[in-house]
Amino acid sequence: MKVTAGGSPTRGWSVSWNYANGQQVGSAWNATVTSNGTLVTARNVNYNGALAAGASTTFGLLGSWNGSNPAPLVSCTTTS
Q: How many CB atoms lie under 10 A from the CB of residue 3?
């Protein structure tokens, strides 16, 4: 996934979403991923949180599911 800073630099970022059908994150890279029930949150790691205005970074994850696998609605926040 790609995270891009808006018009201002950031000191940190997070991306959150809810899985609806029992999907799970097995592993991730370039982010710290936590789960609380259906809520999953990916946060920057120490080397990719500070982004200049318009700059971007990426993170990835491997997941699993049973049955359907609908795309979740994603929410992003930054720390300036």
A: 22
| C-alpha dihedral, 37 to 20 to 72 to 13, nearest 10° | 0
Between β-strands 39-43 and 12-18, what pairing exists: parallel, antiparallel or unpaired? antiparallel
Q: Which residues contact 39 (CB under 8 A, 6 or more apart)?
A: 16, 17, 18
pLDDT tens for each residue of 18-75: 998 889 999 999 999 999 999 999 999 999 999 999 999 999 999 998 888 888 889 9
pTM across the whole model: 0.90
Closest CA to 28 of 10, 37, 40, 20: 40
